[in-house]
Amino acid sequence: MRVAVSLVVYATLLATAAPRLLVGVSWVDRAPRLAICLWQALSVSVLAAIGLAGLALAVPTAKISSGIAELLRACAMSLRVSYAAPGGAMVAGAGLTLTTVLTLRVGSCAAAQLVRAGRARRAHAAKLAILARPAPGLDAVVIPHPAAAAYCVPGRARQVVLTTAALETLSVDQLHAVLAHEQAHLTERHHLVITGADAFARAFPVVPLFTAARAELARLVELAADDAASRRHERLSVAAALAVLAGAGSPAAGLAAGGPTALGRVRRLLQPARPLGTARTMLGAVLVAAVLLTPVAVAAEPILAVTHVLYCPLPLPAS
């Protein structure tokens, strides 16, 4: 029970306090890829803590040292006494139910989100097959449209899409900067980051961490793509291209260089790059690892019990 309560308290604190501590802090804009990892680690850690809390309620544990026959005898006695006690079976059942419901809820929402996104991509790809034509000399296709826009469609038939207005409006440097931005989305599989955040937020919409993570990750993947483009092209070229595309959006199946975050990203790109540095980045990586490992460390006793290192709590009866 103590382990389960500790895990629930940990998950509650993380789910409520983490968004207040992370949203709006300056360092995330300097290291968006690290911030993406941290937001994902926080979300996984909360779910893991709740799931492990349910298992901890169902598995009574303590150390013993004996042969296999005595071990099985002790475990059988422990489980019999534990579940025969008032509320014992109910607590164990509640723990298993909690873990099962959590797993099914997250799994079903993730599967539904993947199916929904895949269906949207296939539908959009069918439209592109009719409307789009290859862009000469560019790893992209072009569709006729009066508004300047650029976006990528991930998946098996991934491709970058430009409008005719974008080709006419962007300079050569700006155009290649935009293509680098969109290729970064495809290479780093940012659509999976967004899909995971959407699945968590849909599964548990009342959890502040998940709703904040969905909004922040949508912004951070754009910052990460901006940084990838600016490593190959001038930051001013990337900023100028974003300014041109600021008013453009993207279909539900894609990720766009423009959109509502574009102007804020332009201001960021107009400033000199200020990476965190090796020491702070390593410290951030340690923080990500600690967040992921904390639920496992707290639940180590019941986990080891399942692997036959820690076992049932009752001492063997005197012979």
Portion of residues within helices: 55-70%
Helical run tally = 13
Give the SSE order as H and E letters.
HHHHHEEEEHHHHHEHHH
Strand order of the largest sheet: 1-2-4-3-5
Name the structural class.
mainly alpha
Quantity of strands, as a count? 5
Number of domains: 1
Q: Write down the overall mean pLDDT.
A: 83
Largest sheet: 5 strands, mixed
End-to-end span in angstroms?
30 Å
Rg on CA atoms, Å: 25 Å
Shape: globular
Give your account of this protein's structure.
- The protein has 319 residues and is mostly helical.
- The protein has one domain.
- It contains 13 helices and 5 strands.
- Strands 1-2-4-3-5 form a 5-stranded mixed beta sheet, sandwiched between helices.
- A hairpin with a 5-residue loop joins β3 and β4.
- The longest helix has 44 residues.
- It is globular and about 70 Å long.
- The C terminus is likely disordered.
Compose a concise summary of this entry.
By secondary structure, the chain is mainly alpha-helical. Helices cover 69% and strands 5% of the residues. The chain contains 13 helices and five strands.
